[in-house]
Structures are given as structure tokens and as C-alpha cells.
Amino acid sequence: MCLTRGIDQRVQRQGQASALQVLLQARLGVLDLLSWSQLHEHTLVQAKDDFAGSVNADLLSDATATITSPGLSVTDTGFTLIDVPVTFATFIPVVQAGALTFETLPITETSIGTGSGGGGGTPITPTIATQPVSQTAAPGTSVSFSVALTNPSNVAATYQWSFNGAPISGATSASYAIPSVQPGNVGIYTVAVTANGSVIASLPAALQITATTRPVGNSVLFASDIQHPNGNVYDQFLINGPATTITADPGQVARISFVDQNDDIVQLEYSGPGTLTVSLANSSGPAIAVNYNQATVSYMKGLPTITIAGADATSNLGIFSVGAITGNVLVLKQGVTYDGIADIALINIASSTGQFGGVRIGNARFSASTGNVGLNAPGVNFTGPIVINDIDASGTASPKLVTGTVAGLAGFAGEIRVAGGDLKQTNNRAIEYGTAVAVRMAAGTNSHGVALPAQANQGRLERNGQDVTASVIVGP
Length: 476
Description:
There is one protein chain. The longest helix has 4 residues. A hairpin with a 2-residue loop joins strand 42 and strand 43. This protein is mainly β. The N terminus is likely disordered.
């Protein structure tokens, strides 16, 4: 029951009653048991509200309301509000003892409610009113991501921020601050809000870094303006720490090298506008590549996450491991068994125009045990092909193949191609899928020319929680 300022309650006696115990139950809540003292005829009844314990007690004053109809006398009734989520205009009290009747009273306050879930209405689950915002920052500057809730029932809420899908230790408040942005901070931030038994996920917010120098962070420009036999001109970067950001000169290719977890030398090649950031998980080095004849070059080793920002339709990405058909055969060691596949964790792509060229990584396999794994380019439309080898999420990782539309290879319009993989997920999770028309299961090769036959699909693809596997998988 809700007492409002200036309310008259009319109580009429209907028969003899002495020391009644009356329980009032209303549509908006439940009043505690009322102990009525002496009942006397021809006297006024006084009722006093007790909103002191209410979350929104300031809405009502702690005042005595006099009941104008004579007949009963009540002293210090002590009404106690258990729970009132106010969503109704009126309520009709029910007197359990049947000896008293109360008139229907109007509700003038519109936001009273403890949200405790006890006694009265059900607490309202909060919603995210203000989402985290994507940001671009110069190296060394600070940024902060935050959310704000709409929480009418004042339900207790907890927060957990994640970076590229992996929880950030200690990031458990409504905001998350990065005091000095470095390439290793570049990526996608989200927060999960847990309240009232539900988990509400925020929209993703991207952090990118401005390329104030070339490169930024842990890499060096190893060689410039190298003329490749295929006619391309490229700059060779060498990563020498856990994370770096590079850019490509107009009309040229930026290449950066590292060693993957299977000791293959991996080359990333990027062209077009925007920045490419490489972050190596479980990084070590620099050290000599043990499977290659390169005694004078030291490489970092690790599992890379690649984040591209500021791209457009002319931007392109290629990834391959160094092998018999992709590099100088003189650097290969006799007697070494190479898997011939580049191991990577995740590619995030954000475009300034909503478009990207192509992702040609048929010689690269996505795998990881935490965070997001795969290709994550929501809303980005590809004017070229997307070719990958495979995706395999283990542990708590979440597999992704999220894109906008895809032009595809010649003769295979709208299709993403899986070259030699089977999309089987070690952790049996569904692959989050975007809006490309189809995924074609096709053949491929590794970097040594070994054929990888087309495999039957063994994964499950979901779009907005709906299984779309049967409608998008093609072949073999």
C-alpha cells in the first residue's frame, strides 16, 4: 500500500471488532501486519506512514494522515512498506479479517520502489542506457570506457569488462580506464552487467591508436622499398616486443614478421589506409628461428591478435607462413617437419567507410583457448574475397566469422572460402556468423605445396542465436 501526501483514508466500521489483527494487501505491494489497539466509536482514526526504510523514502514525508470518518481509533499503526514498484494508477486494499473496508485511493507518486523483490511486485531488470564509445588515442594518453544503467528498481549490479572477448582482471566497475595507451591496448572492449539474475552485454567499443611515428611500439623498420618479383614494393618490419602498430606507405605493402607457436616464420602483409596492430599473446624472444637457417635475424614468438582500424575498400590483408612455395627455400632446414600453416588468434577489422578489400589468409588457421577467435568485422562489407584455412576455439574461446557482405572469389560471388579446414570447434561452441551469403568448404594447400583436400563442415554457425548452418554451408 502506498500512502501519498494529503490522502484521506475513509474507514467504516462494519460490526464489532476488538484488538483486530488486520493484514492489508494491495495491488502495488503488501503492508506489514497492522496491530490495531482499542476500537472506539465516534473517534477519528489516524494512520502514520513509515517510509524511512524505503529506497525512495524522500518521495513521501513521514507525516500523519488523519482519517476523517469517525468510528474507530488507531494509535501508532506504523505502516511499513515492503515493496512497491509503482506502475498502476490505483489500488484496492483487501482486509483479511473482513471487518473493515477501505476506499480505492489514487497514487500520485510515480517512482516509488525498493526493488527488493520481497512481498510486492517483481524488480525491474536494468538496461544499459549509455553504451561504451569507440575512441582513438595518441600513444601515452589516457582513455576511459564507461556504461550507465537505467535501473528503476535500484537492483544491485556487478560489472565485468573484457578485451577482445577475454575478461580483464580487476575491471569490475561501471568504467574502465587505461592510463597510458599503447599498441597492446588496441582492440575491442565490452562489459557484461549482471543484475536481477540476468546478464546484459554492452555493444563493443573499439580503441585504436594514432600512428604518430612509424612504427609505434615494439618493432623496427628492418628494410624499406624492397622490390618484389611480383612487382610490389614493400617495407619490412620486424616485431621485437609484445605489440606494435604499423602503417603502409601509399601504393606499397607493409610486411611484418614473427614466429608462431609451431615455430613457423609468419609474414603479415597489409596495404591501403589505416593502421595494423599486432599483439602477441604468450610472447617470448627475440630469438633465432629454430626451424630456419637465419642466424642473423631474431624473431618474437607468440600467438597474434591483429586489429585493423581506419581501413577502406582499398585495404587488403594477407598472411602466410614461410615455406617451400612462399619463401626462399635456402632458409629451410633439412629434416625439419613444418606444419606449413600460420597460427593466429583473431583479426578485428574496423573501416572508416564500412568497406574493406580482401582477406587472403588461406594459409592461416585461427585458434585460441580464451577470448574471441576468428574474423570479427561486424558491418564491414568486403569488396574482395575472404579465404581462411580454419577456425578452432578451445577452452572458453568464442569463435567468430562475423562480416558484412563479401564479394568473394571470381565465380563464387558472396561466399567466404574455407580452404582445407572443417570448422570443428574443440569446445563445441557455435561460430557467430555475419551476413555473407555462404561459406564454401573447399580445398587448399599449406606453404610447402602440400594439398589440403576439401573437408565436410563439422561446425555450427549461428546468426543472432539462430542456427543458419544448413542455409549457408556449401560443399564439398
